[in-house]
Write a structure and sequence with these properties.
- The protein has 64 residues and is mostly helical.
- The protein has one domain.
- It is 91% helix and 0% strand.
- It is built from two helices and no strands.
- It is elongated.
Length: 64
């Protein structure tokens, strides 16, 4: 895992929180929820390969 991934996740978090607050204050709660959900899906798509590698490593560790 590189530091660039951590910075990307932090940037998405800041951007999503700002957009959500702006949308909530303008009365668009549903769109704020969609923005939050899209940010979560984006970050999970970046992290999923690392989680898969972690489970493979744990599996190999306990098979020995």
């Amino acid at each position: 895992m590189t530091i660039n991934l951590i910075f990307k996740i932090a940037a998405v978090g800041v951007l999503v929180s700002i957009l959500s607050q702006v949308l909530k204050h303008s009365g668009r709660d549903e769109q704020a929820f969609i923005v939050s959900l899209a940010g979560l899906i984006l970050v999970l798509s970046w992290i999923l390969p690392f989680i898969y590698d972690l489970f493979l490593s744990i599996r190999q560790l306990f098979l020995l």
